[in-house]
Amino acid sequence: MGSFEITTVKRIAQLNDESRNFVLVAVVIAKSDPRFFSGPARGRGPFEQDTSAAGKQIARGVITLTLRDSERDTINCTVWGTADTILHHDTTFEVGDVVDVNRPQVSSSLFGRSEQYSPTVSAPYCLTVNDQTQGAQITRHEGSQKQALSALWKVPMVKASETIPLADIVASGSRCNGETFNVLVVVQAVRQKKAIRIARTNQVKSFREVILMDCSHSGVLMKFWSESYIRWSDRWTPLRTVLLIADARVEFSDFYKTACLAVDRKTIITQDPNLPQLNQLLNHVTSIPTQEIDVVCSLSSASTINTVMTVQQIHDRTEGSLVQENDQFTALCYAVITRLDLDGPSRIVSERCMHCRTIVREPGPTCPKYDCPGHDTRTPSREPFFDITVDLTDHTGTLSGCRMVGRVAETVLKCDAATFVRYSEAQKTSLKWRLLLDRCAVRLIVKRRSAVRFQTLFSIVDCTVADPVEVEAKLKVY
After folding, report:
1. Each residue of 167-211: pLDDT tens digit?
2. Cα–Cα distance measured from residue 339 to residue 391, given in angstroms and rounded to the nearest whole number
3. Cβ distance 273 to 154 under 8 Å?
4. Which CATH superfamily is domain 8-38+58-152 in?
5. Matching PANTHER family, A to Z (predicted)?
6. Which residues contact 431 (CB under 8 A, 6 or more apart)?
């Protein structure tokens, strides 16, 4: 390349088949996982023999960056290089960074196979940067355009009207397995990063599960296998970070019996997009229960439940042969209370903050959360509430770990939590034997174990001593 060749700055909209010797300045809006392979050293054919050290196979790799330089214009850039070069690009450039693409090759993307596995973009061209081409490289941009281009990271790739509710994806079950959809969601929880050994390659690979929610559904699991996205998710704040995910792939989980989401090669994630629906979504998720204890309390307002089931039938609906795609059902169970440890070592009364409703385990009168109004107050900001674990037994088996919480427990025990903690041991024992080993009519809401909930939740919403005549008429054999 001669010294007389001048490098100009071009925009995506200006590119054509004749574009040469230019620099493109753009923001990274998506990044693929790097892929590595072995190839012959430069200048030697794949079938030429060479026993020297210089002729040995060298590790090379490829990575794709999706770039944007205006609200309308986007393009894919494929980078080829040695393994060290590709690793450098993977760890150096993250989504949201502004980069200079120096002297890339421009080619039509209409017939390119790689475009089938890359994010959908507006440009009819694609860029290629090869480390064997003199002057071709990607560097971090530090010029005057950085601030303006960084703002484009928040511009959504699709309109809010082009997204679908999570509830529709879950309701489709296995019928949409492998398909891609656009979703607008809030991060409900970010789970710890885990490592798994891939049997086919014997390599250890990291992955992370993130729980997403929207106005239609309280939680759908999404898996991230990309180290780049895992690092990015470290900065996501539950119940505050909004994601617009374009082309999220649906994967039906046979283990959880529900639809989950995953990052596809075509997926683009926009964090906190510039959309008017963002605040509406955030206001909704802050008004619904997300902690397990609050979910149990919210279920206590259930209406009439009259579907009679035995303990075995409930087990079959949760983990046995009668499991359905819907993860929640109700049941009226005529059973004996065989565990009601009111006067024992079990935790009967818990405390939560009156302001943020967070469960408090530490001693003290105030809320331990620094951003809660109840943290620095001089007056107590905690309130006690019943959180009782109950076992139910009938002629078909035992239902362990049922939860009787809040107002339901107060109605059953005929006292509130504040009064209960002042009872003597003798009073607690007397209260226990009013229900223990009696046949009761117990109304339950069951939320089956799922991808976002590790254990089945049995919530007691009503419990009364049963009329023997009613039991005789309605009790089932199975």
Report:
1. 999 888 888 899 999 999 999 999 999 988 887 778 888 889 999
2. 5
3. yes
4. Nucleic acid-binding proteins (2.40.50.140)
5. CELL DIVISION CONTROL PROTEIN 24 OB DOMAIN-CONTAINING PROTEIN-RELATED
6. 342, 413, 415, 420, 423
